[in-house]
Design a protein that fits this description.
Helix 1 packs antiparallel against helix 7 and helix 6 runs antiparallel to helix 7. By secondary structure, the protein is of the alpha/beta class. It has seven helices and seven strands. It is found in: Cell envelope.
């Protein structure tokens, strides 16, 4: 296994673990501060105001559904952004839905399908980030788009969790989730460094041995 592949597997494991270890709906409901509303979430296209805690959430951006689930909220509609099938989420988030969400196209969503779900908020924090898409979705419901300065699927996990948790009324839970992710990334980085240090001596010693074998082979053939 290459070092690069090892890194990506560790990163994936961290994200999957975080997304699969969110609070329950009861825990989230108890920590949601309804008095915090109305709340304004700053996005690439300006502030988006939510007058009340959303109860019907449509998650279209890459990872928005998993983020909502990690925060204890079950979207009524979601994009199957990695073509998982079923509930549109990976195995780490299986079983977190009480009712399967309506699956909506990712790159080219059906706006009619979104409207039919009667959402009171649309999460689109990691998407193409174009104005036409935002305006069309905003005509259906308040849409939390990419953060300021982001573009075309470049939203960081910190910004994604911050935006989604603010919209769902659980900013403190979002901050805890980010802190947990950062701790796991730090632990993974330390594990990678340790693995590289353990591997290096054998890799370095293998090179001279290979060179000696090559010289012997050349001598025998001459």
């Amino acid at each position: 296994m290459t070092a690069r592949k090892s890194v990506w597997l560790l990163v994936l494991a961290i994200v999957l673990t975080a997304c699969g270890s969110g609070p329950s709906d009861d825990e989230t409901a108890s920590t949601t501060n309804d008095s915090a509303y109305p709340v304004t979430v700053e996005t690439k296209f300006g502030g988006v105001t939510l007058d009340a805690r959303p109860t019907r959430v449509v998650a279209l951006g890459w990872g928005d559904a998993e983020t909502a689930l990690a925060l204890g909220v079950q979207p009524v509609g979601a994009s199957d952004w990695l073509a998982f099938g079923g509930d549109g989420v990976g195995p780490w988030a299986q079983g977190l839905y009480d009712e399967p969400p309506t699956i909506i196209g990712t790159l080219d969503p059906s706006y009619e399908q979104v409207a039919a779900l009667a959402p009171d908020v649309i999460l689109d924090t990691k998407s193409s980030g174009d104005r036409t898409r935002f305006d069309t979705l905003s005509a259906i419901a308040p849409t939390v788009a990419l953060p300021p300065g982001a573009d075309n699927y470049t939203t960081s996990y910190e910004d994604q969790v911050t935006l989604v948790s603010a919209a769902l009324g659980v900013p403190d839970t979002g901050a805890e989730l980010i802190s947990g992710l950062n701790d796991k990334f730090a632990a993974a980085a330390a594990a990678i460094r340790s693995s590289a240090e353990k591997r290096s001596p054998s890799e370095h010693s293998a090179a001279p041995a290979t060179a000696r074998t090559s010289r012997r082979a050349n001598a025998c053939s001459s």
